[in-house]
Amino acid sequence: MPVSGPRCSRKVALVTGGGGDIGAGVAIRLAAEGSRVAVGDVTLEAAEATASQIDDAMAVCVDVRDEDQVKSMVEAVESRLGRVDILINCAGISPILPLEKTTVEIWDAVLDINLRGTFLCCREVLPGMAARGYGKIVNISSQSGKKGNSWYAAYCASKFGVIGLTQSIAVEYAPFGININAVCPGVVFTKMWEDMQADYAAKRGINPDNVQNYLTQRIPLGRLAIVEDVANVVAFLVSDESSYMTGQAINVTGGVEMG
């Protein structure tokens, strides 16, 4: 919850991937900070489930890989809420499999959702932000966007790309008063991680029931991340308290990644 009152009062926040655990947590936190929230997700029911937990939120069905759908999403938000002040790009997928089993179709899906989708959403909202001289964008990358890891070729490539995209457009749009940063979470044991648990166990040669303990033992702070850890950092980055920060890729990894 906010520490000292709402920091985003009446700002309009659009959260993609808002039907997932991290996206939902971020959307709910930004609403608590005073934002008017639009929740985008490839599954309308998931977007609606998050929106139902927020007063006067809107839900939008969008496949962030599709240029026309992204354009329609932003138009719908602007039509109802007037503008987009804050964009949080949370949509993403993370398959775990060795390179030799990474098909072109899997590679394209990961890069299209994680990187192309982030690019399309940023490109769609930035002209309006620039015209108004205000905007906050937070792109969700990963600790795997800072350091490569086996069985994550497509995911690492996409999340490294998100950081590069973030830095490039942060420089380009800084003269317009827009702050663009990335957040790099460590392991947040969401439903997506639960679905990947068997694959990760196969990678490490361990029992699936031991995955959480195995991961926890590798974290200096001694625990897995929770959604609120990510949402806290996002809330700071979209507030005026971070007005002198742009182009950063902030680690939220419990000390696993420090670079």
Verbal overview:
It contains 8 helices and 7 strands. By secondary structure, it is an alpha/beta fold. The protein has a 7-stranded parallel beta sheet with strand order 3-2-1-4-5-6-7, sandwiched between helices. Helix 4 (104-132) packs parallel to helix 5. The longest helix is centred in the middle third of the chain and has 29 residues, at 104-132. It is globular. 47% of the residues are buried.
- The Rg value, from CA coordinates, equals 17 Å
Task: Report the CATH superfamily of the largest domain.
Answer: NAD(P)-binding Rossmann-like Domain
The SS-based structural class is alpha/beta
First-last Cα distance = 28 Å
Main β-sheet, in a few words? 7 strands, parallel
The CATH architecture of the largest domain can be named as 3-Layer(aba) Sandwich
Structure summary, number of beta strands: 7
Low-confidence stretches: none
Shape assignment: globular
Helix content: 40-55%
CATH first level of the largest domain: which class? Answer: Alpha Beta
Instruction: Bin the strand percentage.
Output: 5-15%
Count of alpha/pi helices: 8
Query: What's the number of structural domains?
Result: 2
Question: What is the arithmetic mean of pLDDT?
Answer: 95
H/E element order: EHEHEHEHEHEHHHE
By CATH, the topology of the largest domain is Rossmann fold
Task: Please state how the strands of the largest beta sheet are arranged side by side.
Answer: 3-2-1-4-5-6-7
SSE order and pairing:
Elements: E1 12-16, H1 21-32, E2 36-41, H2 44-51, E3 58-61, H3 67-81, E4 86-89, H4 104-132, E5 135-140, H5 153-173, E6 178-185, H6 191-204, H7 211-217, H8 227-237, E7 249-252
Parallel strand pairs: 1-2, 1-4, 2-3, 4-5, 5-6, 6-7
